[in-house]
Amino acid sequence: MGDMAKFKALVVEKTSDKQFVREIRERSVDDLPPGDLVIRVHYSSLNYKDALSATGHPGVTRQFPHTPGIDAAGEVVSCESGAFAPGDKVIVTGYDLGMETDGGWGQYVRIPSEWAVRLPEGVTLREAMALGTAGFTAALSVLKLERAGVRPADGDILVTGATGGVGSIAVSILAAAGYRVTAATGKEFDEDFLKGLGATAVIGRDDVTAGAEKALLAERWAGAVDVVGGQTLAAVLKSTKYGGTVTCCGLVGSPELPVNVYPFILRGVSLLGIDSVQCPRGLREEVWQRLATDWKPVQLGEMATECTLAGLEVMTQAILHGGITGRVVVNLL
Ligand code: NDP
Questions:
Q1: Which GO terms describe its molecular function (predicted)?
Q2: Collapsed DSSP state (helix, strand, coil) of residue 196
Q3: Once rounded to an integer, what is the mean pLDDT over residues 25-37?
Q4: Which residue's C-alpha comes closest to atom 21 of ligand 1?
Q5: What are phi and psi of 137, to 5 degrees?
Q6: pLDDT tens digits, residue range 239-287?
Q7: What is the C-alpha radius of gyration for the chain, rounded to an integer number of angstroms?
Q8: Alpha-carbon span 155 to 146, nearest angstrom
Q9: Is 145 buried (19+), middle (13-18) or exposed (0-12) by CB count in 10 A?
């Protein structure tokens, strides 16, 4: 396997006292999990889920040592099934990558070729990772709102966790698609960032949940993209207008949903689940195609901070504490 036999990867190890330590190690392609597709990873990214994996959260990863990274973009080295040719540029997001399968925080991955999609024209490998699972999930959420019949003329769309990865790209896509977007954030100082992405209004997290204990709240939103869950999602549902649609993809606030049935049975509100991990291939390609064309955020370059494997320690802690604005791209070149 020539000079690719050895490569650098971030490895998470469980120590004897059940702590988790992270270090950059030399690994061998031969030690990677089985699969018909070997990719030289150029870029990966940091998602909230990666931080959970890197710190030993059993809901994401149970087998250690482990290399996280639920996103990878790079060039095909070899493909036994013939689905791709050497040199093809591909994106991998979701499935088991970075969960129990060694992921994109290493210079090579070996995976089933069904997990990869061809890099669409219009985006670079780096841009694909500036989008990553977060961008994919944001776009899937907007696609589902669109398909549910939510139109710009219907009123304001709320995005929660708006400065985060999914939230910031959702704001940008919705604004580009002509919607009026209200961005809800816990970071007051990021108002300019959110307005720059196209938000028409920026509100605090508390504004969303005010009065959440009531059975229903005043109708405010034609639709919403929620990443927070918990009381936030409950309050969003209670303040969604008649016939509106809310997407649910995240749990940064809480995995619980303390809501009653009134938004559904009195206002016909719909709650749509968003899953990027097992998303079927046809839909996956459609979402990437939109991200490469009409939904490609014009501010993508400014939304992404770049770091190396060595920089991930600080970034991992930051994302766990809701401290990242925009996206983090990991450079593995
Ligand atoms: P980020 O950490 O980048 O963004 C989350 C944002 O939520 C933060 O930046 C912050 O934004 C806000 N936030 C953080 N903590 C809290 C809190 N306690 N209460 C309210 N708001 C909070 O994460 P991602 O955007 O990568 O992911 C967001 C969520 O979506 C995660 O739960 C993730 O697991 C999930 N996800 C699900 C996917 C799926 O397929 N279903 C795919 C991708 C992500 P602000 O300060 O602006 O409020």
A1: acryloyl-CoA reductase (NADPH) activity
A2: helix
A3: 95
A4: 161
A5: -70, -40
A6: 999 999 999 999 999 999 999 999 999 999 999 999 999 999 999 999 9
A7: 20
A8: 13
A9: buried
Decide whether any atom of ligand 1 lies within 6 Å of the 57 Cβ: no
**Contact criterion met (CB below 8 Å) for 90 and 113:** no
Residue nearest to atom 24 of ligand 1 (CA): 165
Determine if ligand 1 sits within 6 Å of the CB of residue 182: no
Taking CA atoms only, the protein residue closest to ligand 1 atom 43 is 134
CA angle 13, 54, 126 (to 5 degrees): 125
Q: Buried (b) or exposed (e) across 282-316, using 16+ Cβ within 10 A?
A: eebeebbbbbbeebbbebbeebbeebebeebeebb
* pLDDT single digits (tens) 74-103: 999 999 999 999 999 999 999 999 999 999
Domains of the chain: 2-119+300-331 (3.90.180.10), 133-273 (3.40.50.720)
CA distance 180 to 3: 51
Both structure tokens of 230: 């918990």
Q: Is 178 left (phi over 0), alpha (psi -120 to 50) or beta?
A: left
Residue 8 DSSP SS3: strand
The pTM of the full predicted model, rounded to 2 decimals, is: 0.95
C-beta of 322 in contact with ligand 1 (< 6 A): yes
Distance from the CA of 160 to the center of ligand 1, in angstroms?
A: 8
